């Protein structure tokens, strides 16, 4: 499968890794949109959040547990952060492996166009 993030998981493309356990990978976004900008992904490939089904409940929980743990261990949780997932064309999705942007390190603007 020709998926950029799956290649990162397999170690075929280098990443600036910030978190890894048996089910989740976290790494720095190559084009940061905030002082701190990380991407958290499950090691199991799905295209985006609307491809998640009841069978992926555990997978989703593992990603959010990883984000919680990472934020608490890296000075993000205290001042807060934002989690964003883009889905499809209007959502601005460009990589089709479900991922969660973790943004923080500074106050963020509101959502918008
Ligand atoms: P999306 O646009 O699908 O919501 O998010 C994809 C994200 O992946 C973008 O923020 C983009 O900067 C990031 N990205 C794309 N290619 C690479 C890469 O090769 N390395 C890293 N670390 N991030 C990437
Ligand atoms: Zn993938």
Explained architecture:
It is a single chain. The protein has a single domain, classed as HIT family, subunit A (2-Layer Sandwich). The chain is built from three helices and five strands, in the order αβββαβαβ. The protein is α+β, with helices and mostly antiparallel strands and 113 residues long. The termini are far apart. Helices cover 24% and strands 23% of the residues. Strands 1-2-3-5-4 form a five-stranded antiparallel β-sheet, with helices on one face. The mean pLDDT is 96. The relative contact order is 0.22. The site of zinc ion (ZN) has 5 residues, from helix 1.
**Percent range for β-strand residues:** 15-25%
CATH superfamily: HIT-like
- Alpha-beta content class: alpha+beta
Number of separate structural domains? 1
In short:
The chain is α+β, with helices and mostly antiparallel strands and 113 residues long. It has helices at 4-9, 57-73, 88-91; strands spanning 17-20, 24-28, 36-42, 81-84, 99-104. The protein has a five-stranded antiparallel beta sheet with strand order 1-2-3-5-4, covered by helices on one side.
């Amino acid at each position: 499968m020709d998926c950029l993030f799956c290649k990162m998981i397999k170690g075929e493309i280098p990443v600036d890794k910030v978190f890894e356990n048996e089910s989740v990978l976290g790494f720095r976004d190559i084009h940061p949109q905030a002082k701190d900008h990380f991407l958290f992904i499950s090691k199991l490939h799905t295209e985006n959040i609307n491809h998640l089904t009841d069978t992926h409940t555990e997978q989703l929980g593992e990603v959010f547990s990883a984000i919680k743990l990472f934020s608490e261990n890296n000075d993000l949780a205290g001042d807060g952060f934002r989690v964003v997932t883009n889905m499809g064309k209007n959502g601005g999705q460009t990589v089709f492996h479900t991922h969660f942007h973790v943004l923080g390190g500074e106050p963020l603007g509101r959502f918008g166009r």
